[in-house]
Every structure is written in structure tokens, then in C-alpha cells.
Write a structure and sequence with these properties.
- The chain has an 8-stranded antiparallel beta sheet with strand order 6-7-3-2-1-4-5-8.
- It has 4 helices and 8 strands.
- The model has no long low-confidence stretch (mean pLDDT 90).
- 26% of the residues are buried.
- It has 158 residues and is of the alpha+beta class.
- The protein has one domain: Roll (Pnp Oxidase, Chain A).
- Helix 3 crosses helix 4.
- Strand 4 and strand 5 form a beta hairpin.
- The protein starts with 7 loop residues before the first helix and ends in an 11-residue tail after the last strand.
- It is 26% helix and 31% strand.
Length: 158
């Protein structure tokens, strides 16, 4: 499958700090869900790095190891603008150190979002996982992009 290239506007949406939900599947199509704590779009805009929680759902990481299939939804909680990215060749990367600044920026974004909704910063802290060591960087080639914003066009390929 040829890789899809994100346009700049969608790429900016994906890194804007909203919630990221990631689905995977095993060889019998049983699904597993996890969250991502941030996203880095690579310069080619044909791939990204997601940061999955090791302890939140280890089955999702095992599924990535086994078959590389994923679907990720990127949601703006204020406008409900949502995009789904799908890919089939994801792989786990070893070193988290190069991405520390991305994780910190995502944390700040989450704090701003949570407090603007009237919730205490503690809510963002609880979403952040146990520790930085809990994050696993996952390289995700982008095969397809879909609009999932409620309303006309929901489900359309972008």
C-alpha cells in the first residue's frame, strides 16, 4: 500500500494536543484500545510517532509487534473536529529520549485544555500516565486519513 501524505492543516490538527485514541487488532481481529500521549509528524508527513502507554494496555503494544496494524483518532474536544489515521506497518522504537520535548509540550497542552474546561490540573496529571518511562514511541506510517467530524462528510477519505 502506498503511503498517504498529510496536508499541512491536518498535520497541525494531529499535533495540536487533543486526545489521541489508538486501536489495534490481533491475528483473530480482536481489538485492543489504548491512548497516545502526543504525536510527532515526521518531515515527510507520511509517517508519525505516537507515544503509547506501556502499562495502560500492553495488548495494544503486542498487537503492534505482531502485525503493525493501527487506527488512531485525533479529537479536538472543543469543536469535535476529528480525523482517523490508519496504517499497517507500525513498529515500536527503542529510544524515548529524542522525544522528551514533544511529551512536555503535549503535557502543557493537556493542562491548558483541562483547566479551560474548569477541571483541576490534577486531572491532566492523572491522564499523563505513571511516569515518562511508561511511554513507548511507535513509528506509524500513514496509509489512509478519514474525516470523522460529526456531520456531513463523516467517514469520508481525506
Amino acid at each position: 500500500m502506498s503511503m498517504y501524505k498529510l496536508d499541512e492543516r491536518i498535520a497541525q490538527h494531529l499535533v495540536s494536543g487533543g486526545p489521541i485514541q489508538v486501536g489495534t487488532r490481533d491475528s483473530t481481529n480482536r481489538t485492543s484500545y489504548t491512548r497516545s500521549w502526543g504525536c510527532k509528524i515526521n518531515d515527510d508527513r507520511q509517517s508519525m510517532i505516537l507515544f503509547l502507554y506501556r502499562s495502560y494496555c500492553p495488548q495494544a503494544l503486542q498487537n503492534i509487534r505482531d502485525n503493525g496494524n493501527y487506527a488512531a483518532a485525533f479529537i479536538n474536544v472543543f469543536s469535535y473536529e476529528t480525523y482517523q489515521i490508519k496504517g499497517s506497518r507500525a513498529r515500536i522504537l527503542g529510544d524515548l529520549a529524542p522525544y522528551t520535548n514533544i511529551l512536555e509540550a503535549y503535557y502543557r497542552s493537556q493542562c491548558e485544555m483541562v483547566t479551560s474546561m474548569g477541571l483541576p490540573q490534577l486531572a491532566a496529571d492523572s491522564m499523563a500516565g505513571k511516569s515518562r518511562e511508561d511511554y513507548i514511541p511507535v513509528y506509524c506510517p500513514i496509509d489512509e486519513c478519514f474525516c470523522q467530524t460529526p456531520g456531513p462528510g463523516a467517514g469520508d477519505r481525506v
